[in-house]
Every structure is written in structure tokens, then in C-alpha cells.
From TrEMBL:
Keywords: Coiled coil
Sections of the chain in a coiled coil: 166-193
UniProt keyword Coiled coil, yes or no: yes
Full protein name: Uncharacterized protein
Lineage: Eukaryota, Fungi, Dikarya, Ascomycota, Pezizomycotina
Region of interest (Disordered), residue spans: 1-44, 74-142
Amino acid sequence: MAKKRSDRGKKPGPPIPESPAQYMSRVSKRKPETKMEKKMRRRYLKERQAELDAADKRWADAGEWAKDVLEADAQKKAKKLATDKPSGQTQPSGAAAGEQAEVASSASLLSMAEAEDTEAESGGGPADSKAPKKLRPSQHIQLQNRKIGRLRVLVAGQQNKIDRICKDAEDFADGVKRQLEEMQQTIRQLLRL
């Protein structure tokens, strides 16, 4: 059937929405799931669950690694403060106080993280009151998000320390540069005499 002259060049309109009766008739015509399809679906779900378990293990390993790094750093700083502290000095001052504050903050952050994990895994109550409950998917996601947030805080702290070290190095380089410029000016003045 040829199009009318008035309909030529017009774009087709939006598709007509499907009515509930049409939807039910289309769904009822679907074939039942075969044994092969059921087997493939179960295998797919099993693979996805294995991926989730692997992701949980990676996060747990990352948390243990961060904890070990912070503990080693805290022990190194404490040892350094103990060796650098004079015999007659009773109160830390300056950089020593900052080092002790960083050690204390790292230790408190680790203890808070462990307490939150224990409370979340025990279903929100005391750990000794009842057996641990299996977390719902939403609670599991919230727990993983908290772990990610803590790791980001730790990484940000390390980045801040790196930034401070870089700034100190830049300030030292600027000071050396100024001293060299002053020495060059002095040498030029002496040569003019």
C-alpha cells in the first residue's frame, strides 16, 4: 500500500505502550526453563558468588596489610622517639609531639575499626550475647563501604605525610638556592672591586 503524499517524509511516532493483557499473553507464551538453562543459571550464580568471596578476601588481605604497615610504622616511630629523647627532658616538644600524636591516632583508628567490624558481624549487639548473624546483602555492602572508607583515610594520612616531606624538601631546596644566589652576588661585588 503506497503512502499518502501527506505522510511522506514524516518520522514515525513513539512506540505504542504494551497493555497489561498483551504483556500477560506474551509472558504466558514463554517456554519453561530447560535442564541445561537451569544448570547454566546455577553455574552463573556460583561464579558470581565466587567473585564476591574473592573480593571479600582481597579486602581482608588489604586491611591486614594496612594494619601491619601502621603497626610497623608506629613501632619504628616509638623506637625513634625513645632513642632521640634526652635524659633530662620530660615533655615532648615540636616534632616529637607530632610523631606521638600520629602514633596515637593510628592506634585509635585501628582499635575503632576492629570494634566496628566486630559489632557489625555480631548483628549490632555485644559479641558474647548471641551467636553471630549472617549479614544481609545491604549490611554486607555497608560493612564493605566502611572498610573502603577506612582504607581511604589511611591512604590519605600517608599521602599527607608524603606531601609534608615534599614540602620540607622544596623549602630546603629554596633555601639552598637563595644562599647560592647571595654567594654569587657577593662574589660579583668582590670582583668589581
